[in-house]
Amino acid sequence: MTIRQATRMQLIQPFHVMALLARARELEAAGRSVIHMEIGEPDFVTPQPLIDAGIKALQDGHTHYTPATGLWALREKIAGFYRTRYGVSIEPERVVVTPGASSALQLVLAALVDSGDTVLLSDPGYPCNRNFVHLLNGKPVAIPVGAANDYQPLPQQVSDSWTAQARALLIASPSNPTGTLLDEQTLREYHAITDQKGGSLIVDEIYHGLTYDGPASTALAVSDDIFVINSFSKYFGMTGWRLGWLVAPREVVADIDKLAQNLFLAAPTPAQYAALRAFDEDVLEILDERRDEFRARRDYLLPALRDIGFDIPVNPSGAFYLYANCSRFTDDSFSFTSRLLEEAGVAITPGIDFGTNRPEHHVRFAYTTSLENLQEGVQRLAQAL
Amino acid sequence: MTIRQATRMQLIQPFHVMALLARARELEAAGRSVIHMEIGEPDFVTPQPLIDAGIKALQDGHTHYTPATGLWALREKIAGFYRTRYGVSIEPERVVVTPGASSALQLVLAALVDSGDTVLLSDPGYPCNRNFVHLLNGKPVAIPVGAANDYQPLPQQVSDSWTAQARALLIASPSNPTGTLLDEQTLREYHAITDQKGGSLIVDEIYHGLTYDGPASTALAVSDDIFVINSFSKYFGMTGWRLGWLVAPREVVADIDKLAQNLFLAAPTPAQYAALRAFDEDVLEILDERRDEFRARRDYLLPALRDIGFDIPVNPSGAFYLYANCSRFTDDSFSFTSRLLEEAGVAITPGIDFGTNRPEHHVRFAYTTSLENLQEGVQRLAQAL
User: Fold this and answer.
1) Residue A172 lies in a domain
2) How far apart are alpha carbons B169 and B166 in whole angstroms?
3) With CB atoms 3.0 to 4.6 Å apart as the test, which of A265, B43, B123, B333 could cross-link to B355 if both were Cys?
4) Whether pTM exceeds 0.90
5) Distance from CA of B323 to the nearest CA of A (A)
6) What is the pLDDT of residues A136-182, one digit of tens each?
């Protein structure tokens, strides 16, 4: 018997890079060297003080559930971080600690999106975003974005894409895969539109902290009714711990709590205790050293890729990605990434994972490996091309 | 401006026991003693060898993502556990490690349920189950179950409730809130129906291991096309670590993997490394000692509650719950639980959290506290009633 699956299963694509990664592992197992420039997580291990705090939590027997919205002390610390880093005052009640930013995004969309509703998204953009909309039987609406506007939607595009079925605009700053930021003025313009239309603005700020030409603006400075998603994964280097957060408008927190109780019960407890240390001065120093290392990698990789023929028309100033036009080399970026892996031993992500806006002409480079590896990777690419 | 929420938000209820728990914490903060018989997690801390393994994982720097389906070594160990404990052979490929059983349930239902589809559920039953169906814009169909059939659906009820929109029957053994088990013959009968109807059978086995009158039957012995959900939370005592698993039919594993990549990325890494120790002999010995402690509590609490007037018509032989008819005392179990908290300092869960099948006449007792506390609780109840 064949199992009848839900319609959404045809709409949700696997990450194509996973097949590439599997092939890379095969090559490595066979003795080949592969430079990994496809991986979307920091290569650094979690900072030692956070590891130590996690160990202490386990030693102290913190192995039971926390409340669904997280440890109160952690919600307070996150609120405090907005005060000290951004000068924005957030009530801790509005902070919901989640099992990764993925779950924060799911909570927000589940609270807003009915079957048939639409959510406006940048294309290229983070692939999971549209799939969360499919989960809820909503319809993702892709707004094609390009270099001319720093790969972020023009306010006019948002207005034009908004229909009676639209519920929300979901954007990211810094964005994945393009690494570009939104300034506060643009966030205000987006918010004016969603507000006027009776919809919601959702801002993914999970790469905040990893910005190289000045700090990012938080949407929380713009309005209290914006949903902001953040994470301990990227800047704080806690990917595998699965911990993120959401700042929600006050009026929906009780409903978000209700959803979290049902969907997740709570975020991992040892991770929450470890994260209590995340905002301490000594940890922030480690994180900023790492940020500087990422900056040095970007400052190397960006001109180096341009030199060998990749067209990167903007200067990405956040996250750890470069989104490059590869049309000089190919009209099929997927085959191109396969070829580079096989022939050059360099793994990068094909554009197809990020949407339908000319993916065949784009690839994403992640600088989540050492400067030395990046140099070796560029050398291999130069030879292969 | 008021935020327009999705329709499902009106359909999803918060756990009413949470308000009771919050009130209990207030009373305790004010110096009152409260006996907690409402809490759905073991009072034991995670077994020390598992804590030690978690600490070791952190010391070794295992802080990055794992594959979406979990560490291969853990999938192998889980498969091996089915072989040694149940004599059932499962390919490790069919095991998907998840961030808690909650996420396993979400994956299965997301793979099966379209908007408007129905899922058949026991009433009373675990409240999150129907809310996962609401998440997907499906419709939970409650099958009223009673003591006459050990609080499990009659096969005839399943057939009668099955319509063209039905996609799955979701049942639990041992069940929450009633603590009753399903034998292999009944599982076979359920499976014959879902198979004949072209739907799926989903079996929640998260309380396996916590059975007091003999082992539970796993649905995996019945057929390869049944979805089985399990967890490291209850028997293994790892609630706060957020780790569970799913055994899926071979043909859907790739699709489940794709969903997991998008919805969760992966289960927490330190928890997965800790769980590699879960099936070792020394850990299983600790777990079975704890199981014996739970049995001793049940053997005390069951007759003691009957003695003071609660009607518990079946002998629950699993999980750590007793589902009691309280109609001798009240026609409003919710007010009744409030009164018992205020007057007797005993916290129990009102029937309303488990469905619409005479909840006003039922309460759930959890024996997740020491025998001494249970004795004190019963004494207080006897006085108050």
Assistant:
1) yes
2) 8
3) B123
4) yes
5) 21
6) 999 999 999 999 999 999 999 999 999 999 999 999 999 999 999 99
